[in-house]
Specification:
The structure holds three protein chains of three kinds. Chain A is mainly alpha-helical. Helix content of chain A is 77%, strand content 0%. Chain A folds into three domains: 82 residues, NADH-ubiquinone/plastoquinone oxidoreductase chain 6, subunit NuoJ (Four Helix Bundle (Hemerythrin (Met), subunit A), Up-down Bundle), CATH 1.20.120.1200; 27 residues; 41 residues. Chain A is built from six helices and no strands. In chain B, 76% of the residues lie in helices and 0% in strands. Chain B has one domain: Helix Hairpins. Chain B has three helices and no strands. In chain B, helix 1 packs antiparallel against helix 2. In chain C, 76% of the residues lie in helices and 3% in strands. Chain C is built from 27 helices and two strands. In chain C, helix 10 packs parallel to helix 14. In chain C, strands 1-2 form a two-stranded antiparallel ribbon. Chain C is an all-alpha fold. The chains are: A mainly alpha, B mainly alpha, C mainly alpha. Chains in contact: A-B, A-C, B-C. The interface between A and B is large, with 82 and 69 residues.
């Protein structure tokens, strides 16, 4: 198991950079904070022994999506000519609503009894391709590839100039 | 470090994401907040998978990541389209649905 | 079979009405043909029904279920017995005569208006037959209102004449006043007997307490007063003469105005069970008979003379019923229908020839229009009660019944009425048909076309012979009351003497002009004026209408406009305001909608997990 201190540091990082992601006016910095959040989440996955998931997270999320977001932001900055900023509206109402949601979730989590953590019977990394490709997960997996293709086409069609 | 701590952490992330979606003026900011929400959900899945000691716990986050990719691609496409039509990416200036 | 015949007779004018109203309205002559065919068919089948009833008095029923509910079942049906079949025959005969006569009388109308006329006529004939054959009082009421409607439509047939339109409205409202009483009476009796069926009602009536019975009977009589133009609701009938003359003959002389009398006769056991109700009927009838006769004396319009005469004769019928002899009242109705229709049709022929209603524009018409003149004379003699014409017999019956009744007051009114009747009718005859022509138009008068004279001849025949059918009709109707002191030989002599006296007096005034009518008028001017102003009844009615009824109407309108409408408006206004308020939450910004979704999520979550 990983050191509890490391856990604490990770939790703290996640905490701080989540807030930064939402609260920073400069969208560039907000998306960079998002990258940190996703990166730390990947460490959590690896700590849970979901190594494959962790590396996918880093590759796809941090390496793909965040870079895409950064590209868009930089492109927009090129358009507008100044750093892209985003203010907030109805901060109080939004804050109240999200706080209430947090309280609700917290109450649900705290009032639920969870079972003890069990150990893996097999090694997850070895078992995952087997599960994904040879059991009933294979159909969702293939559908997912179709979905990605559709999104690709959709993105092109919508964003294309007439 | 139990499951509850991870769950509370992801609940916190989720609430922050909701806050971002409800308050950000820019459509890009809303998309970023959305990513946070997806991440919170994936983290939950992984935590439960770990708790039950099942490898399946990592399959759903995988799917989630793939769907997020689709969502981001389409989201940006829509933002571009909106910018072309309405000359703005500010979510609060887009009020076609106004009654 | 009698029921089926009566049903055919009853429905054929309705079919004619439907055909004319929906399809052939624009082809006037064609519509007239359809209507006349239908009514002749009615006549044929009513005769057949009458003979069937004569062989087997029944009563015969044809009925079918109309409304069926838990609390109350309503059957629609016809009831054929001697009374209704005799009345059916009268209606069919007079209606067919009048429709044939109308062909000549209003031939110069435009085709659509002719079609409209015949459509109304068919509807009226149908409704009147429905009223006659009604098996329960609800049905009776429906047809009662329908004939009222037809009367309104036909009085206002020349609706572009303001007087006609006004008269139509006046007739409608005045009769409606009585109808309210009628309807209340029906409901009141329903409350106490639990039935609308005529035979149930008649069977249960004697068992009711006398207070209930009297109240119910008097409320029903209010309807009869309106319909049969009894004092003080008689004011509409003279004005109703604004309609075409054949309409006056059919509706306002022979059939519809007799509906009130018929209704009382139909429900006679109910009325007879209450001494007070009979007393009221007798007094009102006799008083109306006398009052209307006095008013008839001073009229110059030939139709108005006949209208007042009709009111007077209806008074006789009512009095006959009121003194407890149903047969006498109905017999008078039976004979009166013929001779009064005859008189009206003659008057119509005269008016058609002279183009004026005033008797002072006529004169010497007997030699120019012999058939019309002789028919008028026959009608006159029948009305005035000279033997052997039908009116003599029926009037004698009523006088006899009144004399032998316990209560004598109606008798004196009625006897005075006999004298007045002879006088005013003779006056019309001497002025209009004898003497010299008073106006140029009278000199060019000539006999009416055959379509008009043939009905006159037929009705003349009936006016003569109807009286001899007395014993047959009585046998058929059944003796409700045996006559006390079977023969009173002096009574016919007295009334005949009075009638001859009136006739001679009229001759002296208007025939030979031995006495001057003008001088007499001047001598008794206050009385003359009172009568000429119709006893100020119209003024009183107008005052009541304009002050009380319109005042109430104003209050009702104020209430309706400000309170009822105000409440409705307030509801709509408030709804509108709420809607406007709610519109502002529809900002069109998706984030706002997401806020609502999130709030809803929180609320639902808190409820589901029962956090509070």
């Amino acid at each position: 198991m990983i050191n509890p201190v490391l856990y604490g540091i990770f939790t703290f990082l996640l905490f701080v950079f989540s807030i930064l992601t939402i609260a920073h006016r400069d969208l560039m910095k907000a998306s960079l904070s998002l990258a940190v959040v996703l990166f730390v989440t990947a460490f959590f996955y690896i700590a849970f022994k979901f190594e494959f998931l962790g590396w996918t997270q880093i590759l796809l999320y941090v390496g793909g999506i965040v870079v895409l977001i950064l590209f868009v932001i930089m492109l927009a900055r090129e358009y507008v000519g100044k750093p892209l900023e985003s203010g907030f509206r109805r901060t109080w109402l939004g804050g109240l609503v999200s706080a209430l949601i947090f309280i609700f979730l917290l109450w649900v989590i705290l009032s639920t009894e969870f079972p003890e953590i069990q150990n893996f019977s097999t090694e997850p990394v070895k078992d995952l391709p087997n599960l994904l490709l040879a059991t009933h997960y294979v159909l969702p997996f293939e559908v997912l590839s179709l979905l990605l293709l559709a999104a690709l086409f959709g993105g092109i069609v919508i964003a294309r100039r007439e | 470090m139990g499951v509850k701590a991870i769950l509370i952490l992801s609940a916190f992330m989720f609430s922050l994401g909701v806050f971002g979606i409800l308050t950000r003026r820019s459509a890009l900011g809303i998309l970023i907040a959305l990513e946070l929400i997806f991440n919170a959900a994936n983290l939950n899945f992984a935590a439960f998978g770990r708790m039950f000691g099942k490898v399946e716990g990592s399959i759903f986050p995988l799917f989630g990541i793939a769907i997020t990719v689709c969502e981001v691609v389409l989201g940006f496409a829509i933002i571009f389209y909106l910018y072309r039509v309405r000359k703005t990416t500010k979510a609060d200036e887009i009020d076609i649905l106004k009654g | 079979m009698a029921g089926i015949y009566a049903l055919i007779s009853f429905l054929s004018p309705f079919i004619a009405f439907i055909i004319i109203g929906l399809l052939t309205r624009r082809w006037g002559k064609f519509s007239a043909g359809i209507s006349i065919l239908a009514v002749l068919n009615s006549l044929l089948f009513s005769v057949l029904a009458f003979f069937q009833v004569k062989a087997n008095p029944g009563p015969h029923f044809v009925e079918w279920l109309w409304l069926s509910q838990k609390i109350f079942t309503f059957k629609f049906g016809i009831w054929v017995d001697p009374l209704s079949s005799a009345m059916l025959f009268v209606v069919a005969l007079v209606a067919s005569m009048v429709q044939i006569y109308s062909l000549g009388y209003i031939s110069d109308e435009t085709p659509p208006s002719l079609g409209r006329y015949y459509a109304y006529h068919s509807l009226f004939t149908f409704s009147m037959m429905g009223l006659v054959l009604a098996k329960n009082v609800l049905e009776l009421f429906v047809f009662w209102e329908l004939v009222g409607l037809c009367s309104y439509l036909l009085i206002g047939f020349w609706y572009y004449k303001p007087t006609a339109a006004k008269a139509a409205v006046k007739a409608f409202w005045t009769t409606k006043l009585g109808d309210v009483g009628f309807m209340l009476g029906l409901l009141y009796l329903y409350k106490h007997t639990g039935s609308f069926e005529l035979n149930d009602l008649l069977a249960k009536a004697p068992a009711l307490s006398s207070g209930v019975l009297t109240t119910g009977a008097l409320m029903l009589f209010a309807g009869a007063m309106g319909k049969s133009a009894q004092f003080p609701l008689h004011i509409w009938l003279p004005d109703a003469m604004e309609g075409p003359t054949p309409v006056s003959a059919l509706i306002h002389a022979a059939t519809m105005v007799a509906a009130g009398v018929y209704m009382v006769a139909r429900l006679f056991p109910l009325f007879a069970a209450s001494k007070v109700a009979l007393w009221v009927i007798a007094i009102i009838g006799a008083f109306t008979a006398f009052l209307a006769a006095t008013m008839a004396i001073v009229q110059e319009d030939i139709k108005r003379v006949l209208a007042y005469s009709t009111i007077s004769q209806l008074g006789y019928m009512m009095a006959g019923l009121g003194v407890g002899n149903m047969n006498a009242g109905f017999f008078h109705l039976f004979t009166h229908a013929y001779f009064k229709a005859l008189l009206f049709l003659c008057a119509g022929a005269v008016i058609h020839a002279v183009h004026s209603n005033s008797i002072w524009d006529m004169g010497g018409l007997l030699k120019r229009m012999p058939i019309t003149g002789i028919s008028f004379l026959i009608g006159l003699l029948a009305l005035a009660g000279f033997p052997p014409f039908s009116g003599f017999f029926s009037k004698e019956e009523i006088l006899h019944a009144a004399y032998t009744a316990e209560f004598k007051l109606p008798f004196y009114f009625l006897v005075a009425g006999v004298f007045l009747t002879a006088f005013y009718m003779a006056r019309v005859f001497f002025v209009a048909f004898l003497g010299k022509e008073r106006k140029e138009s009278a000199k060019h008068a000539h006999e009416a076309p055959p379509s008009m004279t043939i009905p006159l001849i037929i009705l003349s025949v009936f006016s003569i012979i109807a009286g001899f059918y007395k014993s047959g009709l009585y046998k058929l109707l059944g003796e409700h009351h045996e006559i006390h002191g079977a023969s009173l030989p002096f009574l016919p002599l007295v009334s005949l003497g009075l009638a001859i006296f009136g006739f001679i007096l009229a001759y002296l005034y208007y025939g030979s002009e031995t006495f001057s009518a003008e001088k007499t008028t001047k001598r008794v001017f206050p009385v003359y004026n009172l009568i000429y102003q119709k006893y100020y009844m119209d003024h009183i009615a107008e005052w009541i209408y304009s002050k009380i009824a319109l005042g109430l109407a104003f209050l009702a309108s104020w209430w309706d406009r400000h309170i009822v409408d105000g409440a409705v408006n307030w509801v709509t206004y408030t709804t509108g305001r709420i809607g406007k308020g709610l519109r502002t939450i529809q900002t069109g910004v998706i984030q706002d909608y997401l806020v609502y979704i999130a709030i809803a999520f929180i609320i639902i979550g808190f409820i589901v997990f029962q956090i509070f």
